[in-house]
Amino acid sequence: MTNEKYYDIVVIGAGAIGTSVAYHLAKEGYKTALLERGDIASGSSSHCDAVAVICDKLPGLDTKMGQASIDYFGKLAKEFDYDFEYTPKGCLYVCETEPEFAAASKYCEAQQKDGYKMRMIDSRELSEMEPHISKDLYGALYTPPESSVAVNPYRLCFAFTYEAEKFGLEKYTYCKITKINLNDKTNAVESLETNYGTIHTKRIVNCAGAWAPFVGKLTGLSIPIEPRKGTNLVSEQTPRLCNNKIMEYGYMMSKFDSINFKRKVSKLVEDQNIAFNLEYTNSNNLLVGGNRLFRGYDIRTEIETVKAICERAMRFFPELANIKCIRTYSGVRPFVKDHLPIVSDVDSIPGYYIAAGHEGDGICLSPITGKFMAEIVAGRPTDFDISKLDFKRFA
Amino acid sequence: MIHKDVLVIGAGPSGLSAAIEAGKAGADTLLVDLNLKAGGQLFKQIHKFFGSSAHHSGTRGYEIGSLLLKQARDAGVEIWLQSTVIGIFPGGKVGIERGLDNGEKDLVTLKAKTIIIATGASENAIRFKGWTTPGVMGAGAAQTMVNVNHVRPGENIVMIGSGNVGLIVSYQLMQAGCNVVALLEAAPKVGGYSVHAAKIRRAGVPIYTSRTIIEALAGEDGSVCGCVTAAVDDHFQPVPGTEETLKCDVITLATGMKPTMDLVKLAGCALKFHGPLGGYVPIHDERLETSVKGVFVAGDSTGVEEANTALDEGKIAGISAAEELGYISHEDADAMRSEIWSRLDSLRLGPFGERRMKEKKAMMEEYSETVKVPAAFQ
After folding, report:
1. B238 strand-pairing partners
2. pLDDT at site B354
3. Average pLDDT of A344-364?
4. Which of A82, A150, A226, B24 is most buried (CB neighbours < 10 A)?
5. Domains in chain A: ranges and CATH
6. Hey, are the CB atoms on B87 and A307 less than 8 Å from each other?
7. Can you tell me the distance from the alpha carbon of A258 to that of A156, in angstroms, rounded to the nearest whole number?
């Protein structure tokens, strides 16, 4: 009797990315294990919002992956027995001022040129679509449901796991990895030491998101992902205050520091790096966000953040002043400086793969990332060129 | 940002007595409570208290409440009512939704050198078919309705649970003019003091032991019109074929309480599960300091007990907070505390008290073994 275990491939991390990767590998026929230090969806995937859109992505590869992933969500929703609350839902990027509208129009034009369906709407159309929104807004960038959906991130992780188990996935929750053994000569992956015993495998995929650097360290890899905190407020159940997912165009600024655009906001909102966004959930609670701050792995909500989100949210939806906040939560997003995830193998360690660093796009990009990773492992070309996501870029 | 020496959260018996001690010692003390009135559960306790004169024996609960409130004011304690602590945030910042005189609320941020968490306990619910039907409520809610708001929750009441809360509230509901149809107790014996049970039985109310509720029945208007009960076996499982239906319009649940841990958790205090104390409790030392420096606990939020023990624990926490800030010398604080501790020991006699005392002692031992020195508030 031995407790040693053998797998074709071991996936580390059971968030949206890890469970999707595990699903795609198991489906491909690999004997797959999923290792998680907590429970399924206990990290960023349960401390985020629920939306998958293309309009928060830069034109080019980012958007292309986003759209492919959104299309894929629709397919998975039909195939899966496990309901992850897939809901096509339009998205409005609201512009406070004329210059914001002009910048958004430029962005819209670039996306239209690539064939994506989005369009600019004026303030009149905006208030027809969203009767409760402030009347003094300049307009908005509208993305139709084809390119904007909502899913339940928790359920998504459980759905991938459930469906993967049909293909033989074995999961190890509350698993602590103490060591990853590499071959003395070839440096290739050989096994992992865990509280479940030794797990033998020739391949591992590091899907640990914001915690990927810790897994990297076990084999001396330096993975440049940093935890970036985001906070959301949850409201009491309310009648529908909005019909679409609502975001402010300034959100782009908090996401991409390169877009240099100054809003007229209070010092509190500025300091807290607030980007208003609003969506309703299936249970008719509102999720109100959000912001991005570097605070290490501390996911306690800060009172200044709560105040600043409220202040900003009431600017766009004054009626929020009469709705109670019942809970707040924060989580870390796996931030990479160039805002692109890492999805590739690792040259220095044969059999080592990374799928991590999606920052706020992990839920949205999880289906396509899993698919790509299965293709990379199988040695097949991916649907389109993702060499920009290679870990090599940090060499 | 507002600064205070001592912030006491919860103005029940433990919070009030903590604030009085801290205020008397000279600490700039703020007492915050979300209710209209200070006094917590005391204001619905119309019965006379047991215990010694130090514990106001023979005085009715609500009178003790008024007395403490006056003492707190005399001690210079600032009191904010209808004010809710919405969280304890990084940096030791406390968010308070402060109730203003004009009925509006204002969100204020406050930093206190020490915090005493005295948030009490909340009632446990048990789940059965129809448990969310209007008319099913906690026994504490029914007690508030009759004793504080002077409103009968209904006409015909079935009480689930025969602990002291179930027994006393049943009697008070009868005093208010309700008909208590029956008490159900899943255990083979009545849980509370026999003196209370005898009062109920004398009034002709049956107490069914080894029997529980399995379903709340709803009438045409959607609210409770009766309940189905069943005998339970040794493992508390309903025995098929023993079902009986009782007619009632209210079902009250007196099925235990658990310490309210929300703020303790937010403050980062180490917790430990102690069944006899009601569930997870913050571990603390003899000074009632938690694993976080400057954060103290008192009353039911350290383990569900009685108002008497809450009063004394509150005093200890108030003294310790004042000592922490240098308003009371260590020698004086030690002497004051040891007097209260010996009084608490004598209070914690009897079958219920001794179990809790043992559990509290075990918890304080755990503290000295695992925490040793409380960590700085971050």
Report:
1. B232
2. 84
3. 96
4. A150
5. 5-46+154-224+338-394 (3.50.50.60), 91-143+226-335 (3.30.9.10)
6. no
7. 32
Structure tokens at A38: 């907590």
Nearest to B95 among A298, A300, A303 (CB): A303
Predicted pLDDT of residue B306: 82
Give chain A's radius of gyration (CA, Å).
21
Look at residues A173, A171, A155, A146 and name the one whose alpha carbon lies nearest to residue A80.
A155
One domain, residues B239 and B201: yes
Distance from C-alpha of A345 to C-alpha of A348, rounded to nearest angstrom: 9
B280, B330: one domain: yes
For residues A354 and A319, give the distance between their C-alpha atoms in angstroms, rounded to a whole number: 45
CATH of the domain at B268: 3.50.50.60
Is A301 in the B-facing interface, judged by CB distances under 8 Å?
yes
DSSP-based three-state secondary structure for B260: coil
How many CB pairs below 8 A link A and B? 17
Which residues have CB under 8 Å from A292's CB, separation 6+? A228, A229, A230, A254, A255, A273, A275, A333, A360
Give the model's confidence band at A49: pLDDT under 50 very low, under 70 low, under 90 confident, else very high: confident
d(CA B272, CA B366): 9
| Element housing B350 (H / E) | helix B350-370
Q: Evaluate if residue A230 carries a pLDDT over 50.
A: yes
**Model ipTM value:** 0.83
Residues of chain A neighbouring B112 (CB-CB closer than 8 A): none
Residue with tokens 């810790």: A214
User: Based on the domain organization, do B227 and B261 belong to the same domain?
Assistant: no
Which contacts (CB < 8 Å, 24+ apart) does range A72-75 have? A72/A367, A72/A368, A72/A371, A73/A149, A73/A151, A73/A367, A74/A149
Could you report the per-residue pLDDT of B53-87, keeping only the tens digit for each?
Answer: 566 666 777 788 888 999 999 999 999 999 999 99
Interface check for A236 against chain B (CB to CB < 8 A): the answer is no
How far is CA B216 from each of CA B236, B244, B256, rounded to the nearest angstrom?
Answer: 18, 12, 19
Question: Which 3 state secondary structure label does DSSP give B160?
Answer: strand
Q: Is the pTM of this model over 0.90?
A: no
> Do B133 and B245 lie in a common domain?
yes
Tell which of A233, A235, A303 to mutate to test the B interface (max B CBs under 10 Å).
A303
Residues B156, B218, single domain; the answer is: yes
Contact residues, chain A, for B95 at CB < 8 Å: 303, 306
To the nearest whole Å, the CA of B183 is away from the closest chain A CA by 35
- Which of A201, A204, A215, A200 lies closest to A3 in space, CA to CA? A200
Smallest CA–CA distance, residue B91 to chain A, in Å, is 9
| Inter-chain residue contact A306 with B95, CB threshold 8 Å | yes
Cα distances (Å, whole numbers) of residue A132 to A279, A316, B335: 13, 9, 63
Report residue A67 as tokens.
């759209």
Exposure string for B56-77, b = 16+ CB within 10 A, e = fewer: beeeebbbbbeebbebbeebeb
Mode of pairing for the β-strands spanning B244-247 and B224-231: antiparallel
- Residues in chain A, how many? 395
Question: Cα dist. A28→A71, A207, A364 in Å?
Answer: 20, 18, 22
Number of domain units in chain B: 2
Note whether A328 contacts B: Cβ–Cβ < 8 A: yes
Contacts (Cβ under 8 Å, ≥6 apart) of A165: A26, A171
Whole-number pLDDT of residue A1: 45
**Phi and psi based region of residue B227 (left: phi greater than 0; alpha: psi -120 to 50; beta: remaining):** beta
Q: Which residues form the domain of B189? A: 124-251
Residues A207 and A209: their CA atoms lie apart, in Å, by 6
What is the spatial order of strands in the sheet that B179-185 belongs to? B136-138, B250-253, B156-160, B179-185, B207-209
- Nearest CA-CA distance, residue A370 and chain B, Å: 36
Where do the DSSP E strands lie in B178-303? 179-185, 207-209, 211-218, 224-231, 244-247, 250-253, 257-259, 271-274, 279-282, 295-297
- Residue A164 token pair: 């993967």
